[in-house]
């Protein structure tokens, strides 16, 4: 167990941040999965900006790498345009 107040606070804040990051990442993955499964072009075009925004946000906060976010956005955009 931590012996210093600052170390104890660091443990608490790390736990909160870990849960928040996990929630944001899982929510984004579910949104990407939902977008990939859509077959209606109008629905997909409505959902794409929301998913792109989610990817940008988690990349900005270093939950995923910025290049991974860019690759996902590119692939999703291509898929929506092919519909």
The chain-level mean pLDDT equals 95
Give the helices and strands as they follow along the chain: HHH
Radius of gyration: 17 Å
Report the end-to-end length measured between terminal Cα atoms: 55 Å
The largest sheet, given as strand count, sense and whether it forms a barrel, is: none
The total of beta strands comes to: 0
Shape: elongated
Q: Name the CATH architecture.
A: Up-down Bundle
User: Can you tell me the CATH superfamily?
Assistant: Ribosomal protein S20
Count structural domains.
Answer: 1
Based on helices, strands and strand pairing, what is the structural class? mainly alpha
Task: Provide the CATH top-level class.
Answer: Mainly Alpha
Strand residue content: under 5%
The tally of helices reads 3
CATH fold-level topology: Methane Monooxygenase Hydroxylase, Chain G, domain 1
Q: Low-confidence parts lasting 5 or more residues at pLDDT below 50?
A: none
Measured as a percent range, the helix fraction is: over 70%
Question: If you had to describe this structure to a student in words, what would you say it looks like?
Answer:
The chain starts with a helix and ends with a helix. It is 84% helix and 0% strand. Helix 1 runs antiparallel to helix 2 (41-60). With 83 residues, it is mostly helical. It has a single domain (5-82), classed as Methane Monooxygenase Hydroxylase, Chain G, domain 1.
List the helices and strands and how they pair.
Elements: H1 5-37, H2 41-60, H3 66-82
Helix pairs in contact: 1-2, 2-3
Short summary of the structure?
With 83 residues, the chain is mostly helical.
